[in-house]
Amino acid sequence: xxxxxHSDVLFPxxxxxxxxxxxxxxxxxxxxxxxPHGHTDPKWYALxxxxxxxxxxxxxxxxxxxxxxxxxxxxxxxxxxxxxxxATVETDGRRIWRLFAxxxxxxxxxxxRQWMDFVLSNLFGIDEPLTAKTxxxxxxxxxxxxxxxxxxxRALFKRFNIEVIATTEGALDDLRWHKAIRDSGWxxxxxxxxxxxxxxxxxxxxxSANLDQLGDITGEDTGSWTGYLAAHRKRRxxxxxxxxxxxxxxxxxxxxxxxxxxxxxxxxxxxxxGKSDADDHKLFRGQMLTEMAKMSLDxxxxxxxxxxxxxxxxxxxxxxxxRDMGFDIPGRTDYVSALKPLLDAVGAERDLxxxxxxxxxxxxxxxxxxxxxxxxxxxxxxxWWFHDSPEGMRRFRExxxxxxxxxxxxxxxxxxxxxxxxxxxxDVARRVDCAFLARLVSEHRLREEEAFELATxxxxxxxxxxxxx
Length: 469
Prior knowledge:
By secondary structure, the chain is an alpha/beta fold. It has 20 helices and 11 strands. The chain is globular and about 65 Å long. The model has no long low-confidence stretch (mean pLDDT 96).
């Protein structure tokens, strides 16, 4: 069968360097996938039901796809994206798929095109480019396969060679689907991660009610600072009982604070009483990052900080469709000053791992690499979100390796909601890293045997070690 993906895609054009990249890639292409951070739904693995139609699987939940189409004037409602008010949206999967196929050319040159072609070709056996003319044929072929047992979530989990995958649940989640997975006896390893944004960000919708619910769940007095911290410790322990090895924090900035107990309690009391302002909210978010880092020293959870996204940039889209609708936009982010309070408190701790991500590439060489290249607690997360792309990955390696090296990074994680794209995303990362290593070998900056060791580290070992999986 003819593939939509060339066998040498993303490898260097120069023959001698390409041959090194090919040899490196051959040793890592079939390694198991470690997926330590993502947003796939644990319900899929718990119930193991057939996936819905092609559009509901591949288009409707994927903001990489519908944000591009929306930017070209296509209504989200016509793509089946739900509205908060319950108003009618398109539900005919074939119509949604046709609309997508007619406009697939918009994705030329993007990583989304790379991932989708990989999925269409490698997973569903489609060998014709997706266009308006091939829309119905491809839809029928995908729908036919989705009805087969070998295309159910657990079977695909095995087919994708996933060793472990971490989903991400909010602090108030009851983890019922993780419990169902465990009780089912299935041997696929699906773990959770602790995402407490709804109960650490005073600007989060329903924050006060969320704290009340946190107290109800844990039996702690979340009207007091000490009770509030105790509630977090209990929830973290509960998440660990379902395999969690990390917490995840999606703050607008990387600001941290290290207040005294008395100052922190007074700040919390102002917020709880509704007498706080924007500066208090910013300070509280910063204090909670440091508190979470201190808790990680006790319970071993890896602390992930995902700052720099200006969430819900369009108030209209947010009001109509809610969060995660493609309108989270990168912004400038400070790390050196912002992280200093946290680093003063715990940065030298060898038993703590804080994984830093960024949407501000200008900070790679200037701030992030020097920080991670000095503080034992810090590691650099891979190129993320808007920069989860071949060029973004190359820039990451080029701007961080000379100061932080490879071993202060944590390999690759796919951070995806689109389950079928997981192998595609890991394949892109492995190809880009092999190409980068091949260049270093060709320039005599790295011995060939070292490059082979590093290829495995970057594709598999570093993520497994950093996330304690």
